[in-house]
Amino acid sequence: MNPLQPRRRHRLSHLMFALLVAALPFAATVPALLWQERQDLQASVRQQVDQGLQLVDGILDQADEAARILLPLAGGSCDKAVYSLRRQVAVAPFVRSTVLLDGDNVYCSSLSGSTRWAMPARGFVQGRMQLLSGNAVTPKVPLLYYRLNRGGDAAVATVDGRYLQLALQDVSDRILVFLQVGDHWLGPRRYGEGAMPARGQVEEIRHSSRYPFSVRSSYDVPAWHRHLWSHHAPLTVILLLLGLSAGATLYWLLGRPASFTDELRRALANDEFEGYLQPIVKPGLPDWRGAEVLMRWRHPREGLIRPDLFIPRAEESGLIVEMTRRMMDAVLAKLAKLPLAPDFHLGVNISRAHLQEGGLYSDCRRWAGLLAESGAVLTLELTEREMVAITPEVEALFRRLDALGVRVALDDFGTGHSSLVYLQQLTVGGLKIDQSFVAGIGSDGLSGHIVDSVAELAAKLGLATVAEGVETAEQFDYLSRLGVNWLQGFYIARPMPLDEFVRRVRQGGTWQR
Ligand SMILES: Nc1nc2c(ncn2[C@@H]2O[C@H](COP(=O)(O)O[C@H]3[C@@H](O)[C@H](n4cnc5c(=O)[nH]c(N)nc54)O[C@@H]3COP(=O)(O)O)[C@@H](O)[C@H]2O)c(=O)[nH]1
């Protein structure tokens, strides 16, 4: 299984989730805001139209009252009626003239007394109202005739259109309100016939219950994005920024490793594990004769992390196999072409998971192949602390590795319980004397005896010995005299970055005592 795959899948789902959250403030607020605004607009237009209707009804009530008073005089003598006609003009608000008709002809007028001109009933809506752009007296001033009929006679009160326009103006706020009588309409500033100007998508109409007219208004619902930007630009920006920061925070939170294993997986995907090399020398010979590859974690925030802080968890999770594979591939890509000393031993720590996982043999074949060019030998260091059960498969694997020219050494020898069993049953080529025993040389008699015994046992079994943790000249001399084949420790060199190791090998003269 590729340990990186689940991580990529998670990243994608985290991104989707974060985008969803980023869109949430905008998506939750804007439709509600626009809906509320539309409701408010509709309510305010309804209110305007209702108020318009009330005002026009009120004006017409005055004309109706005047016409009602004059109607009994219709058909009678004009001389007798003219005073009453003029009186209504004087006392009735909004009424600018009054006339009496016999049939379709005006025969008496408040303006000129006895007269004769045609005012056909068919021009009136429901025989009662007519809206005009003007008349002979004031051709450019709209007016409205209000007519009451009795038999063939009629009385008409004329309302000055400017009163109506003032009333319409008064109720027109953002949206214009119009009066409609039949095909004729009157707006706050205009008069017309036929279709009303600027018909919008939404229309509000109220019909008077008492007179044959209606008041109407219409408006367009603006495109939501244009409306939002022109009316709520700061809010839109705030919502978008809020969403983006919430989404980004969520993405960051989701991306944080949920567990230490997740953090290791993230680090593996980012190639944060690298190999440091600690040189190994042979007593009496110049130059580095080997090296141990030791893993370091170059953490982006924490800096360089020691292996004992993360290797145990990497081993538990099985990630150690892929970590070792990547580290060794990177190390060998640089080491393979180096002028290494003859019989150079490159040690690498191998975990139990790698032995069990099945890929160890093919990894070793690849690594040994790369090293072959430089004449170096690969040594697998297996720690006693983490040994596998000895099965026929494990025995066969050790034999195949031996045939491949890959050496196996028991690391931390003497600290576990099964050292001797491994020596007996597995094809092992060497022992690594644990640094705790080396540290006791010269000061702790028991440690000195153990080191002596291990060296003696190794010599008898024909095994190569490496002593690790050599920190002093005294330890170096003691182990050299004892015949230990390889020495490793701070006295010789500390583990160093791969590039430094390569540079120093290229410069030559790496070790001289
Ligand atoms: N499975 C894997 N285990 C690994 C890998 N890389 C390292 N390790 C194991 O981690 C443990 C700690 O390693 P590290 O901190 O690198 O310490 C090594 C040396 O730096 C240290 N050393 C060497 N010389 C001296 C010395 O003179 N004094 C002193 N105090 N310490 C010294 O010893 C460690 C080497 O140990 P060993 O491997 O037993 O030779 C350690 O158990 C590593 O095995 C890895 O890639 N895989």
Describe this structure in words.
The protein is of the alpha+beta class and 513 residues long. 46% of the residues lie in helices and 23% in strands. It is built from 15 helices and 21 strands. It is rod-shaped and about 155 Å long. The structure holds ligand LFPHGCPZ. Ligand LFPHGCPZ is lined by residues 278, 292, 294-295, 306-308, 311, 320, 324, 349, 351, 381, 411-412, 435, 468-471, 488-490, 495. Ligand LFPHGCPZ binds next to strand 13, helix 7 and strand 17. Residues 257-509 form the EAL domain.
Question: What's this model, at a glance?
Answer:
The chain is built from 15 helices and 21 strands. By secondary structure, the chain is an alpha+beta fold. The protein binds ligand LFPHGCPZ.
